[in-house]
């Protein structure tokens, strides 16, 4: 596992331009929303940016790297060695979790120094933990996509499309500009439940029954995506 | 080096192997053994069942029935132990393109539980005349160099069984000869080598025994010389002889037919 992790982190570092862009999306939105902090609230801004970052990592980062390495035969080469399939996948997931931690900490730091969003230390810790849990919804979704689609180019275009839909409908839906029905749909969508749980974690005093339902929904989404993703996933493209 | 007790039992034993893809049966009751100090060739036209057989041995697919043991370990019941005793060179050199050659060697050494210091990595690369390439990426090497790296990685843990899947495809004659010498070196050190190839010249040159597989079944198994002797007077073989003298390729085409497979 240590050797695989070292290799996977080295690969991530060598692809730092592309993972930098994945991190940049949420930071650009965070900085550009500086003027909206007073209207929307710091917690809403932080939770939205983290949710967008989680979507980027799960859909753009994870699924594309898995699809690419599967197409190259990297997994098959590893699998003929004395290493279990779960070890290979766990190493990949740990790298993504590290990305989630980095992205969340960067959002907190930029939010603090640029947007002047101040939350409690408990809020930061709870937010970080919930970001990791919320990340599994999108990693699961990425796994389901890469399980369902074999061609790496199709995976790439599909994840971009899903990402775009999530951000556009998610954000505008939550602002209420797409009507009540769409708004309700967004609230209980993977985007909405993760954002809701994150917001309540950043401000633990605001946690209520709705947040608990959102947390359960997020867990449900994760289970469904992971089960389907694992069931559909093939280690080779043939 | 392999000890005498290990040399007595087959390193690889494939028994009554059946591989099924839906309604299509790719491998039918295939059985063979590969012993220590032997290079065994698995020959067959495209789609004959070579890759499916090899994939089952590697543990990459679950056979419908039959058993495979590597160094005494059942590939289905103890896959990690079985894989720890085999070194595999796949058709394509599928290593992470972002990693350097020395990083890839170190990664696979660690996977196989071999602790390689920098000096040992350099030594491995020097053995294949690639000491200057340690900092290069795999894509920066030529096909022959990639195959040499792949072979070093396949045998980094001194496995009892070495599986080579069409290792000389696309290589120039010099690189091919060098690879043959490496194979013979493994054999002489007591390793068992299972080689798949489309080159009858290669099979004749390096294999101690060969099996010809067609439509999922083994249709002939023996030494190259014995196969030629057995089929010297076969009308199907005689009808495809090109230069007066029966070769292994003539026997192969005589047994598997002249039709081009997809």
From TrEMBL, chain A:
It is found in: Membrane. InterPro entries: ABC-2_transporter, ABC2_TM. One of its GO terms (cellular component) is membrane. Residues 3-170 form the ABC-2 type transporter transmembrane domain. It is a multi-pass membrane protein. Keywords: Membrane, Transmembrane, Transmembrane helix. The chain crosses the membrane at residues 20-37, 43-62, 93-113, 125-149, 161-191, 211-233. One of its GO terms (molecular function) is ABC-type transporter activity. It comes from the Bacteria. Signal peptide: none annotated. This is ABC-2 type transporter.
UniProtKB/TrEMBL annotation, chain B:
The keyword Repeat does not apply. Belongs to the ABC transporter superfamily. One of its GO terms (molecular function) is ATP hydrolysis activity. Residues 12-240 form the ABC transporter domain. It is found in: Cell membrane. PROSITE patterns: ABC_TRANSPORTER_1, ABC_TRANSPORTER_2. Keywords: ATP-binding, Cell membrane, Membrane, Nodulation, Nucleotide-binding, Translocase, Transport. This is ABC-2 type transport system ATP-binding protein. InterPro entries: AAA+_ATPase, ABC_transporter-like_ATP-bd, ABC_transporter-like_CS, ABC_transporter_ATP-binding, P-loop_NTPase. It comes from Chitinophaga ginsengisegetis. GO terms for cellular component: plasma membrane.
């Amino acid at each position: 596992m240590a050797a695989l992790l070292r290799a996977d982190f080295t690969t991530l570092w060598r692809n730092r331009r592309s993972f930098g862009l994945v991190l940049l999306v949420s930071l650009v939105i965070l900085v550009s929303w500086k003027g909206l902090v007073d209207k929307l609230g710091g917690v809403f801004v932080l939770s939205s940016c983290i949710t967008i970052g989680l979507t980027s990592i799960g859909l753009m980062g994870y699924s594309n790297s898995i699809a690419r390495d599967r197409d190259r035969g990297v997994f098959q080469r590893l699998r003929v060695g004395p290493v279990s399939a779960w070890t290979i996948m766990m190493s990949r997931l740990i790298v993504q979790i590290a990305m989630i931690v980095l992205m969340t900490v960067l959002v907190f730091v930029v939010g603090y120094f640029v947007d002047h969003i101040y939350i409690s230390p408990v809020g930061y810790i709870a937010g970080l933990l919930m970001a990791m849990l919320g990340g599994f919804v999108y990693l699961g979704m990425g796994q389901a996509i890469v399980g369902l689609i074999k061609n790496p180019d199709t995976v790439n275009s599909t994840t971009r499309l899903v990402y775009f839909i999530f951000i556009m409908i998610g954000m505008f839906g939550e602002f209420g500009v797409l009507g009540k029905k769409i708004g309700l749909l967004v609230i209980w969508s993977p985007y909405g439940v993760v954002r809701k749980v994150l917001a309540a974690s950043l401000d633990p005093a605001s946690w209520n029954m709705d947040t608990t339902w959102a947390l359960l929904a997020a867990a449900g989404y994760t289970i469904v995506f992971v089960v389907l993703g694992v069931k559909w996933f093939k280690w080779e493209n043939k | 080096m392999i000890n005498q007790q290990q040399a007595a039992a087959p390193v690889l034993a494939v028994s009554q192997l059946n591989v099924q893809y839906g309604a299509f049966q790719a491998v039918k009751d295939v059985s063979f053994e590969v012993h220590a100090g032997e290079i065994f060739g698995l020959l067959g036209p495209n789609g004959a069942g070579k890759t499916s057989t090899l994939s089952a041995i590697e543990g990459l697919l679950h056979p419908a029935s039959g058993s495979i043991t590597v160094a005494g370990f059942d590939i289905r019941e103890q896959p990690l132990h079985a894989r720890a005793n085999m070194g595999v060179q796949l058709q394509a050199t599928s290593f992470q393109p972002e990693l350097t050659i020395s990083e890839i060697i170190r990664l696979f050494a660690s996977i196989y539980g071999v602790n390689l210091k920098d000096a040992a990595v350099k030594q491995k690369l020097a053995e294949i005349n690639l000491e200057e390439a340690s900092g290069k990426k795999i894509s920066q090497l030529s096909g022959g160099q990639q195959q040499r790296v792949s072979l070093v990685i396949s045998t980094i843990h001194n496995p009892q069984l070495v599986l080579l899947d069409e290792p000389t495809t696309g290589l120039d004659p010099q690189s091919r000869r060098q690879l043959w010498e490496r194979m013979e070196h493994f054999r002489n050190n007591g390793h068992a080598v299972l080689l798949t190839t489309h080159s009858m010249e290669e099979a004749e040159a390096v294999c101690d025994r060969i099996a010809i597989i067609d439509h999922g079944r083994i249709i002939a198994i023996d030494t190259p010389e014995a196969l030629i002797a057995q089929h010297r007077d076969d009308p199907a073989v005689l009808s495809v002889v090109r230069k007066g003298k029966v070769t292994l390729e003539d026997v192969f085409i005589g047994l598997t037919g002249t039709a081009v497979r997809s």
